[in-house]
Amino acid sequence: MIKLTITSKTTRLVYDVNPEIRKFKETDRDKVRKIATSTVTGYPRSDLKLVADLLTNYYLNYEPEHLLIAEVEGQVVGYLSGCFNGSRCRWIKSTRVIPKAIVKALFRREIGWKEVRYLGSFIYVTTHGGLRNAPPSGYPAHFHINISEGSRGKGLGTELANEFISMLREAEVRGVHVRVRQNDRRASRFFRSLGFTRETGYPILVAEGNEFRTSRSIIYKKRINDST
Length: 228
Fold this sequence. Notes:
- By secondary structure, the protein is an alpha+beta fold.
- It has 6 helices and 9 strands; from the N terminus they run βββααββααβαβαββ.
- It has a 7-stranded mixed beta sheet with strand order 3-4-5-6-7-9-8, with helices on both faces. It has a two-stranded antiparallel ribbon with strand order 1-2.
C-alpha cells in the first residue's frame, strides 16, 4: 500500500511496509553479510569475503544478541549491528577478527595489491595519530545500520535505532555513539533527528577506485541513562 504524504514544502511517497524488527537468528548470517558488502563504500572490493569478515564478524560471532534484523514480507532487508562495550569490541577486532580475516584472505589468494596498499596506508595513518577508535568517555555503546538499496527511506532505520536504544536503556548503558562520514549529510540529519549531538571529527582512510585518500568521520553521541 502506498500513502501520499503532503508536507509544507514537498509531496513525497511513503510506503507502508509494516516491518518486523526482531533479534538475529543464525539463518540470517549470509543475508547480513550480503547486505554489508552490497552497501559498503570506502573498502577495496576485489575480495568481498574479506570485506564481509571485517564488517560483520565481530557482531555475528561475539555479540549476536545485540544484532537486530529488519524483515519485510519475509525478506531480510536490513540490519543493525550493535555493541554495548566499545573498548571490548576494539580489543577483539584488533586481536582476533581482523588478523583472522586477513589470514583467511591470504589463504584464498584473493587478496591483491589494492588490499596490501589499503592495509599499509591504514597502518601509516594509525601510527600518525589518525583513525580514532576509542569511544568517547561515557558513551561506550555503538551501532551501525545497513539497509538494502530498494528499502531505504521507509523508516526502517528509525525502527532499528529505536529498538536498540530501548535495549540500551533496559541494560542501563550510559550512552551510545555513532560514526558518520563527514560529507554524509543524510546520515547526519538522521542521527540528529534521533537526539544525537555532534562531538568531534577524526581522520579515516577510504578507497576510491584504485586510489586511497584520507577523509574525516564525525562522532555523534546520545545520553541514554544519566543515573549510571
